[in-house]
Amino acid sequence: MIRNQTTAWLLASVLTSTSWVESSPAFAEQLQPGFEAAVEVEWILVPAVVRSSSGYLRGLEAKDFVLSVDGRPIALDSFENRADAPVSLVHLQDLSGSMALGDKIATSRQALGCFLDQTQPGDEIALATFASGRIQVEVPFTDDLGVVREAMDSWRGYGTTALHDAVSWLPDIAVHEHSVKRAALLISDGVDNASVLSSGAARNMVRQAQMPVYVLGLESGSPFELNAEGRKRHRHADVLNLLAHLTGGQYHAIEGHAGLAEACQAMLEDLRAQYVLGFATGSAGSSTTRTLSVDVPGRNATVTHRRSYTGRLPATD
């Protein structure tokens, strides 16, 4: 039996054991990068987007899904399929020196503006920026779009880039979100010249935020393009694409302003079409990384979803 959705997101709001550093009244709190904490989840949320050859498959019910943990199907404890359900979005903005080149900052403002222009009642957004080894929560979760627009108007590029360290803080930034439907939007050119954490360590940590990460790679290129020696031509794109893929998000390569509107619209459509499957973990087994798979048998469809979680085995009745 599927539990009440309200119960699901209340449980999800306490899903991590990491601490939250409150933002100041001026909406700017510096967080120190490179923290390493073991995160154990008690309630697992699995956002999923289902597509067929003709587009999104909407209106599916819990019985249409098969969710497996470590290859074994499990029962769902919660399920959200409302297209009008509110969305919580964390916008993580790169403000390092390389972003000051060209129109990258202007493109970033345009991308965030696209989301703000299409918000619905109940949607909320948190805004964080990073540069020179610092990450600042400029705007905690709010539905006051004027505050968000004012903050993004002040963006200026400066300093070094600690992209991986900044990404690793997404679970802490997201811990105060209120919606079952949630996502992060990362805008960056992919350059990293100052991180303490590796890209792999950052990906392992960001997965605990239980939300897809959508990435707009500004002039970072295609992750699939090879050079004459058969090697990846754009190494930054490869890192950004892997981050998006493992969390159930999408990577979009943006050159100038070309394709920006389409990429933003695709992200918004994903969020509105998102299903959220949930289950509780129990006391069995050790706390370790476990694989997730989601299928919709008989639908001839593909499902985009997060690939793993860290915690114990699903609870049994």
Describe how the helices and strands are arranged:
Elements (H helix, E strand, L loop, with lengths): L4 H8 L17 E2 L11 E10 L2 E2 L9 E4 L2 E3 L3 E3 L6 E8 L9 H14 L6 E8 L2 E9 L2 H9 L9 H5 L2 H5 L6 E8 L10 H8 L6 E6 L16 H13 L3 E4 L5 H14 L1 E6 L7 E8 L6 E4 L2 E4 L6
Parallel strand pairs: 7-8, 7-10, 10-11, 11-12
Antiparallel strand pairs: 1-9, 2-3, 2-13, 2-15, 4-5, 4-14, 6-13, 8-9, 14-16
Helix pairs in contact: 2-8
Give a structural overview.
The chain is an alpha+beta fold and 317 residues long. The protein has 2 domains: 101 residues, Immunoglobulin-like; 186 residues, von Willebrand factor, type A domain (Rossmann fold, 3-Layer(aba) Sandwich). It contains 8 helices and 16 strands. The chain has a 7-stranded mixed sheet with strand order 1-9-8-7-10-11-12. Strands 2, 3, 6, 13 and 15 form a 5-stranded antiparallel sheet that branches. It is globular.
* Rg over alpha carbons: 19 Å
Q: How many structural domains are formed by the residues?
A: 2
Continuous helix count: 8
Instruction: Describe the sheet with the most strands.
Output: 7 strands, mixed
What is the CATH topology classification name of the largest domain? Answer: Rossmann fold
Estimated share of beta-strand residues: 25-35%
Could you give the order of the helices and strands?
HEEEEEEEHEEHHHEHEHEHEEEE
Which CATH C-level class of the largest domain is it?
Answer: Alpha Beta
- Which percent bin holds the helix content? 10-25%
CATH architecture grouping of the largest domain: 3-Layer(aba) Sandwich
Low-confidence stretches: 3-39
- Strand order, main sheet: write it out: 1-9-8-7-10-11-12
Shape: globular
Distance between the terminal alpha carbons, to the nearest Å?
11 Å
Counting DSSP E segments of at least 2 residues, the number of strands comes to 16
Mean pLDDT comes to: 85
CATH superfamily of the largest domain: von Willebrand factor, type A domain
The computed structural class is alpha+beta
